[in-house]
Amino acid sequence: MTVQTRDFFSFSDIQQAADYIRAHTSHQPEIGLILGSGLSPLAEEIDHADRIPYRNIPHFPVSGVEGHAGMLVIGHLAGQPVLVMQGRTHFYEGYTVQHITLPVRVMQALGVKTLVVTNAAGGINPNFQAGDLMLIVDHINMLGFGGANPLRGPNLSEFGPRFPSMTHPYDRQLRDLAKQAADRLNIPLREGVYACLAGPSFETPAEIRFLRTIGADAVGMSTVPEVIVANHGGMRVLGVSSITNVAVASLDSERETTHQEVLETGKLIVPRLMALLKEVLAAMA
Ligand code: HPA
After folding, report:
1. Total number of domains in the chain
2. CATH no. for residue 63?
3. Which of 209, 257, 269 gets mutated to test ligand 1 (max ligand atoms within 8 A of its CB)?
4. In 3-state terms, the chain is what percent helix, strand and coil (to 5)?
5. pLDDT tens-place string over residues 25-55
6. Ligand 1: residue whose CA is nearest its atom 6
7. Which protein residue has the closest C-alpha to ligand 1 atom 5?
8. Within a domain: 191
9. Radius of gyration (Cα) for the chain, nearest Å?
10. Is the minimum distance from the CB of 21 to ligand 1 under 6 angstroms?
11. Helices (H), 49-171
12. Which residues form the domain of 192?
């Protein structure tokens, strides 16, 4: 598979993709959901679903990674109209961060006001265990430190300012809703800071200790570019990580992080994450 990626997209590129989607659904969702590795089954629960393959949508990036379906599913979940990205693309696949985040721009053009992002992540906080759910309270954009910020390039002033604030990247009200929903369902919900790295290699033990030192509780290879673009466009964001593995912080450990483990634990977490998201969506109504 060849990856054709681009650095910059214009307002009319975004409109073109939005027009295609509008022509293929009658739903007008105000909530968008991005499903991470292994979480595709969530999209099977959407009622009255219109399904649009990414490859049919102008300019959309298409993922080749196992566990990422590449389907836009628009319909109802917990009584709310939602637009669900069943699978996402990643920087490590060869796409630019501008291309990865194009779907968030398209959501904004379609009138989506709230973005719910999910991902699989490695637990860094020593209190975390594989199988935990973590509410993302803040992030560290290691990918951006290297220059890969999705807002690099001409500013799309239709969406937001040249220098947007990132002081409140994850909406407090939505975080409170999620905590209350988790309480009602008796689902333990951790809270923490998510660090985004480029991948695709997992971290060395020294890198994990470094990330712990700078305040990260979990690490992954996605989400942050989308959240930056969402904030630039004035969306409210809720983020939840599935802690699929405990990141290895010692060279003496016998443990290895594998994609297989990430997918298998991800599958075990799906029912709890689904229940939590549905409860949150119902509470948003
Ligand atoms: N590191 C980076 N990304 C991940 C991990 C990890 O340990 N687990 C799931 N995604």
Report:
1. 1
2. 3.40.50.1580
3. 257
4. 35, 25, 40
5. 999 999 999 988 677 788 888 999 999 999 9
6. 122
7. 122
8. yes
9. 18
10. no
11. 97-100, 102-110, 142-145
12. 24-284
